[in-house]
């Protein structure tokens, strides 16, 4: 035992960084913990930003990951509003812009991701917004007055959730998607088609296969989105939701292995044995699927926070998890589990016209890879278990809504 | 403030004063009680805040809602007194509530 307790510095005070600090204490870490974040606020939940927060149904307190007193009680030092200039691995210290340095024994990079910028004319106009943090969400909310017209570039989860919230606030919303369907990168065809219909039925204009050429302004403010085919969509504000870019610059500059994300193992260890990385900024193994990739989700941030904390505290690693995601749009609760990389077959359980349904994605041997459930929590839970087991289930059985899935998961 | 006692799977007890209107999940998370993950932050979307309500309190906490019951029915460690703690809101009538935590949330 050294005389001085070792110190863990966590760079990034988002869901991943905040969770890591909490898990380290829960798992018995006795040394120092310093949580460094660029935003001026303690860790908070981002998922409600495009939903409850936009609609004015959340408060700063309900958004907070932990109450303010938690950090003092748990001896977690917060250094908020603090940008990090560099990581000096040789000296094991983090360099701050004011020239000072923060020494570490172990470092956790929880650097997150940032909204991808629209590489088109007009992207810098006033009223062209992104949605990642509280300040962004407040700007979007200010634009969502009743009757205001919001143009959403990108039919991903952020865009669709924001469009749903806009409608709830009495604003008009147009979703402009470049691909032939919304959620093209992250959902199956059946779910995409269902959501397009659902949004249209609730007053959202959904344009697919629509390439944006530019954003047109007046007096420096966005006034319309111009499509490549010449169509002009008048609007009062533009929300750009075209994906996120992992914040890997600090890690790259420090010479850590990166591959479109900081490369980590299942204990969240980077190529430097004293440095871990977690959350949106990582490129991680996906053992159930025999590959690696980057996941942008709260459950993944929490899972990797557990992996890092367990390794640092000498605990066994958590079992490989089934990645999962959720989204709320209008009265629709979406719950997705698993990844459908090698799916050959999709089975719809229930009816897309009914109160709820689920789409199961199977590989060529009928192993359950993933499930997408809409207002069907039981099917989501069953799918998550079946994906974890990589269970082989005949499609006809999954598709028979009269047959309970409970027997198959036992 | 009403109090809740959380009993970990290994028997460790945590007695927490909890503001009215907050969920039993939030009381655990905010005070570092291990064993409640609450991945989704209280949206009834993940079933990682599973608790067993002490039999004496079952009448006062009431039964799970439809969505909650669906999620719970697939929890490996579910029992008749299982609840998702994000769906139990603290009221003065629940002062003294006792909940036990399962061995794991998955």
From TrEMBL, chain B:
One of its GO terms (molecular function) is 2 iron, 2 sulfur cluster binding. Residues 2-105 form the 2Fe-2S ferredoxin-type domain. This is 2Fe-2S iron-sulfur cluster binding domain-containing protein. GO terms for cellular component: cytosol. Keywords: 2Fe-2S, Iron, Iron-sulfur, Metal-binding. The lineage of its organism: Bacteria, Pseudomonadati, Pseudomonadota, Alphaproteobacteria, Acetobacterales. InterPro entries: 2Fe-2S_ferredoxin-like_sf, 2Fe-2S_ferredoxin-type, Adrenodoxin-like, Beta-grasp_dom_sf. The keyword Acetylation does not apply. One of its GO terms (biological process) is P450-containing electron transport chain. Its cofactor is [2Fe-2S] cluster. It comes from Roseicella aquatilis. Belongs to the adrenodoxin/putidaredoxin family.
